[in-house]
Design goal:
By secondary structure, this protein is an alpha/beta fold. It is built from eleven helices and twelve strands. The strands form three sheets. Strands 3, 4, 5, 6, 7, 10, 11 and 12 form an eight-stranded mixed β-sheet that branches. Strands 1-2 form a two-stranded antiparallel ribbon. A two-stranded parallel ribbon has the order 8-9.
């Protein structure tokens, strides 16, 4: 019967080119590797290596079984990882809420690390407006949420102010604003502004950011950017969304007369009060906090 030790020795020998190199790689003696490979060949009734040359090379059958062996080892590792997660009570599913005003780019790195650390935890990302996020966290529909604070965080939520988000005023290169470093207030008020609908639900940011008498709304920040690129209007977007757009010339940045200093809002991470975090949720919170500390 096949065993993991035999398969591991076989794969190591195939990849390292010799039994001695394979032994050093997996921390076994050369004789142990040689015996494991020999026993595997006996169990299968197939010669895996051609030993007629100085260094053993895979036979045709060995080459095919090498690919299968790698798959079996990966499956074995996944089984061990899953069993470890069960014993440590790792969440089967983690639901993360994201403020509709916040671009995913802000938390891409923590999400990538979360996926690597907990490969068996299914992650569900939900974008909602500020007040909807708070309600969803309170009801338990969402375990952790990233949100821009309103006038106050509800009493039933705990939170950490984890990172600062800088906002910039942008327009299309075809806009009349494109050649203006500073755009006066009267001009801003008289030209159409494109906003994310979530801005209407945040009383603090709404008073800071909505100036125009002519407003178009989109439910997602990416759609806001697309409308601005089409010269539908001007708008505020998180600087993290500029990316290559400014370099490619699809967006221009300008300064509004009413605020020449950087426009910065805190992004909070929050969860239901008195809840016991699972390992995946706690890891995500720690990654977000670490990221914010580096700003």
């Amino acid at each position: 019967m096949l065993n993991i030790e035999q398969l591991n020795a076989f794969v190591a020998a195939a990849e390292k080119g010799s039994f001695s190199a394979a032994a050093r790689h997996i921390g076994k003696s050369q004789s142990s590797v040689s015996i494991s490979v020999n026993n595997l060949e006996l169990d299968l009734g197939i010669s895996l290596f051609d030993r007629s040359t100085k260094y053993p090379t895979l036979t045709v059958q060995g080459e095919r079984l090498y690919q299968q062996a790698k798959i079996l080892l990966r499956q074995a590792e996944r089984m061990e990882s899953y069993a470890l997660g069960v014993n440590e009570e790792v969440e089967n599913t983690l639901v993360i809420g994201i403020d509709s005003l916040a671009p995913l780019a802000l938390i891409e790195a923590p999400l990538e690390k979360l996926g690597q650390k907990f490969p068996f935890t299914n992650v569900k990302l939900i974008k909602l407006a500020n007040n909807q996020l708070a309600n969803a966290v309170h009801s338990g529909e969402i375990q952790v949420a990233m949100m821009f604070p309103d006038e106050g965080v509800p009493e039933h939520l705990d939170f950490l102010s984890c990172m600062n988000v800088e906002w910039v005023c942008v327009c299309s290169p075809d806009s009349s604003f494109a050649d203006m470093d500073v755009v006066d207030n009267e001009t801003l008020i008289s030209h159409r502004q494109v906003i994310c609908s979530g801005l209407m639900d945040n009383s603090v940011m709404r008073t800071q950011s909505i100036l125009s008498q002519d407003v178009w709304e989109a439910s997602d920040q990416d759609d806001v950017v697309r409308l601005i690129e089409q010269d539908i209007g001007w708008g505020f977007i998180p600087q993290a969304m500029l990316g290559d757009r400014q370099a490619l010339g699809t967006l221009n940045v300008f300064k509004p007369e009413f605020n020449l200093a950087p426009m910065i809002n805190s992004l909070d991470i929050c969860w239901r009060t008195n809840i016991q975090h699972g390992p995946a949720a706690q890891f995500f919170i720690d990654q977000i906090t670490e990221l914010g500390s580096k700003q």
